[in-house]
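quick q for whoever's on today - can somebody do inverse folding on this one?? i tried earlier but teh output was garbage lol. tokens:
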């Protein structure tokens, strides 16, 4: 490995890759910028966009290669594998443009992705002040955060290129805590530069991060993908199609009430407060702590001449998702409480006389409603006439029967939206592995999560070395304790994560169900989560480390069940007791089972068809190993 030259911050006045002379073209992809880390020990793809047909000359680490930009302007070269080292300068030039990225190191690049627990910054995690102000600067751990962006089709590059930051007190506080602490721990044993590319969005489902091809492989997403694709070609038709999807959901709940379906405007409606605002503050008992769907209705009278015009409907902000109808036809659906809704209406959408506008507002947490400036709610005709929408009424949708589906272009719960906006622009940028901290949003859908995670791991390896590690943080303890054995959605999602990782020889699991917070879905102890991610990486790499007791089997032995564990650091330990707690034996029902440690096994008294361990949203258990790592939660059949 080359010796790393000292980095003098005052001497870094270089031409950034984004400062190019080719207009809006990104001659080098946005990730190739000052202070970047690129992947060692395998061919290095370098790519970007030039004018179609131009010859691009790229130079890196003493090598010069050329490529011709395709009809879409895309170009790529692949430099020979380079060992860890640096710093280097990367250049790309055409007859009309030049780009330079300086102070580039060669090492291991990790993609850190997921939802809010991966997004959580060092400054918001435990011991933040000390870690930020007293942590040693490290110019060989470099951090790049991908700006949040969604899309209905894959983006070729980033609207705002990510800036690579050095590890120091001015930069580390704003970076992903789990990702940073993982890298800091991993570098203790893998002494090469580490580049961290962080792409997360709180509240996102795994489906939003996956390609349509991967979702089709899992199955069950064809309609959503077709509607998403239609929204690119024909938004009006897509909105109508989505409106019919919500209608079908409602009709399945109320099969005998279609004549008074809310989108028709029929039935009983209650006057909403003037200006509306957050419904939890209306003083209506049924809405004081309500998360779900509330239907809102406004009416507007039009002349025949007005009805013949094209128009634009604006309904302001809706927390947090809406599906909006005009005269029973879907005209728009948007996710994001911060966004003003503006829906163009084609000629023929309106009619002479009374027109009914209905907004289905779906809120999943905290505040809900239609709020912001009431004056924004209006129908504006093509001739400029603006008709305010006032005197809104509402209906509360009963919770029984389940929540509505989410639009396929929904930023966080749609299909492929975050892949399109945040992962697709990475292109073939080479990385050493993936650290994934996600799953909270998919709680309640555990039956589909294991195949989704399996497909996601496979597609993130496409274009990379096929055996790169994929590390998964298992969900931490949060939510209900178990007073009796029962069904717990978070526990089921954890087991789906476990099964997906178990089936992949190059995947690793970081268990965290002992370091969470039952009252906060965002636990602060990201240092330990990062340490366990590093242990999982080292195990995948083949190092002789253990990652916590991992169930192997459960077998009948007379009137007992013997549960065997691997990955035990030293020996099994029952903390605070001479017996093991947290086990259940199940057949038609589940019941607590006492356990005794015998070597690397736990012997349970009783019989059952399956064994559960630590099966609750916030489980109570005491089985650890001598290294201090907890036994992972599981549900397995008894042999």
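ok took a stab at it. sequence:
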């Amino acid at each position: 490995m080359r010796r790393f030259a000292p980095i003098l911050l005052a001497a870094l006045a270089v031409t950034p890759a984004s400062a190019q002379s080719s207009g809006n073209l990104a001659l080098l992809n946005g990730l190739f910028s000052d202070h970047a880390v690129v992947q060692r020990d395998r061919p290095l793809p370098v790519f970007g966009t030039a004018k179609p047909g131009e010859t691009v000359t790229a130079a890196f680490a003493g090598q010069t290669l050329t490529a011709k930009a395709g009809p879409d302007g895309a170009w790529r070269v692949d430099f020979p594998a380079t060992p860890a080292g640096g710093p280097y300068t990367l250049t790309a030039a055409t007859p009309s443009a030049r780009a330079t990225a300086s102070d580039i190191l060669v090492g291991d690049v990790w993609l850190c992705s997921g939802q809010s627990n991966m997004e959580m910054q060092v400054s918001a995690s435990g011991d933040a002040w000390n870690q930020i102000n007293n942590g040693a600067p490290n110019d060989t751990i470099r951090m790049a955060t991908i700006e949040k962006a969604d899309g209905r089709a894959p983006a070729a590059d980033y609207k705002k290129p990510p800036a690579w930051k050095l590890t120091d007190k001015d930069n580390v506080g704003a970076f992903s805590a789990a990702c940073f602490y993982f890298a800091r721990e991993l570098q203790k044993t893998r002494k090469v530069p580490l580049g961290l590319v962080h792409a997360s969005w709180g509240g996102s489902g795994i489906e939003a991060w996956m390609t349509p091809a991967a979702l089709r492989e899992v199955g069950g997403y064809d309609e959503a993908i077709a509607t998403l694709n239609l929204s690119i070609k024909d938004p009006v038709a897509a909105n109508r199609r989505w409106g019919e999807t919500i209608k079908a959901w409602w009709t399945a709940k109320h099969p005998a009430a279609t004549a008074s379906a809310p989108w028709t405007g029929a039935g009983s409606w209650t006057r909403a407060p003037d200006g509306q605002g957050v419904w939890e503050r209306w003083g209506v008992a049924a809405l004081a702590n309500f998360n779900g769907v509330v239907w809102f209705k406004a009416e507007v009278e039009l002349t025949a001449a007005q009805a013949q015009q094209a128009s634009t409907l604006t309904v302001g902000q809706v927390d947090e998702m809406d599906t909006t109808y005009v005269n029973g036809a879907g005209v728009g659906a948007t996710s994001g409480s911060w966004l003003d809704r503006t829906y163009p209406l084609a000629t023929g959408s309106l009619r002479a006389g009374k027109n009914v506008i209905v907004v289905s507002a779906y809120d999943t947490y905290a505040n809900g409603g239609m709020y912001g400036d009431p004056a924004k709610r209006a129908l504006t005709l093509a001739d400029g006439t603006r008709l305010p929408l006032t005197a809104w009424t509402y209906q509360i949708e009963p919770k029984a029967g389940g929540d509505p589906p989410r639009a396929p272009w929904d930023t966080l719960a749609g299909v492929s939206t975050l892949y399109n906006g945040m992962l697709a622009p990475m292109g073939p940028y080479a990385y050493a592995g993936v650290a994934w901290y996600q799953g909270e949003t998919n709680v309640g859908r555990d039956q589909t999560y294991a195949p989704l995670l399996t497909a996601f791991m496979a597609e993130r390896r496409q274009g990379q070395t096929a055996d790169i590690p994929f590390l998964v943080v298992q969900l931490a303890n949060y939510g209900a304790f178990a007073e009796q054995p029962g069904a717990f959605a978070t526990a089921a999602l954890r087991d789906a994560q476990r099964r997906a990782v178990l089936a992949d020889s190059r995947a690793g699991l970081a268990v965290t169900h002992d370091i969470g917070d039952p009252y906060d879905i965002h636990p602060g102890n990201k240092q330990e989560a990062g340490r366990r991610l590093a242990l999982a990486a080292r195990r995948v790499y083949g190092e002789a480390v253990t990652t916590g007791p991992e169930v192997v089997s459960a077998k009948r032995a007379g009137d007992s069940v013997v549960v065997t564990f691997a990955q035990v650091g030293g020996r099994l330990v029952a903390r605070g007791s001479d017996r093991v707690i947290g086990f259940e034996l199940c057949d038609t029902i589940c019941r607590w089972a006492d356990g005794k440690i015998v070597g690397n096994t736990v012997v349970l008294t009783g019989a059952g068809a399956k064994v559960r361990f630590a099966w609750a949203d916030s489980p109570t258990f005491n089985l650890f190993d001598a290294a201090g790592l907890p036994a992972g939660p599981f549900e397995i059949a008894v042999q």
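fwiw The radius of gyration is 28 Å. also The chain has eleven helices and 34 strands. so keep that in mind when u check it
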